[in-house]
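Late entry, written up from scratch paper. The run itself happened at the end of the previous shift, but nothing got recorded in the book at the time, so transcribing now.
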Amino acid sequence: MTLAWASLFVVFASTVVVLVDQFVLGYRQPAKIMEMVWPATALYLGPAAVMSYRKWGRPQSPRWMDRYGNPPRASRHAPTTIQTYHCATHCTLGVIIATPITYGVGLEMFGSTLWPEVVGDYIGAVAIGVAFRYSAEAHAGGRRAWAAIQKFLRSDLLTVSVFEVALLGWLALMHFRYFHETLRPGSPVFWFIIQVGLIIGFLAAWPPTLLLIRRGVKTELLGTPR
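Output as recorded:
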């Protein structure tokens, strides 16, 4: 319990650090979606997310470049990592939104609360991913929605699916092997387990993201160092 509280405190503090830097100190991101991605990443990676934000995200802001000039050259793995952050945000927000709903409504499938959570988390991740793509589209009307869906299916679905499989595999292990339905969203241990699952999902999603970039499928690398 103490470890769970400590971990949650660290990630929330890390998220606040990023939010303050962006919206109070004025280091706004040129790709507005990244202003959600960086804080969401801090919700599970904590100080590691803050470090990568200060290394790769902050130097992309107009305020930083006005003060210091062009940002430093990023490592060759920066685009893959940032794009994995981007897709992982779909899953992170999906979990945060869908999990309390499924538990709050008291849904069960096959006698367990896990399966509605699995379905809800995945649907939430896909919906948020499409919404992200929609917000970045320049088309108008129905074409904009269809273009967003197409880009999500082509560029993000594989990464999101791999992330979700790894996350939900971890949750199933914890659910059936160790806790047997005893944990609920009101417990800090529950969210600590979610946090660990998000880290596992991120690690699992990194290789397919690299593959999609190398094959030219992910061509719109939002928020990557210029």
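The CA atoms of residues 103 and 113 lie 7 Å apart.
(Scratch paper discarded after transcription.)
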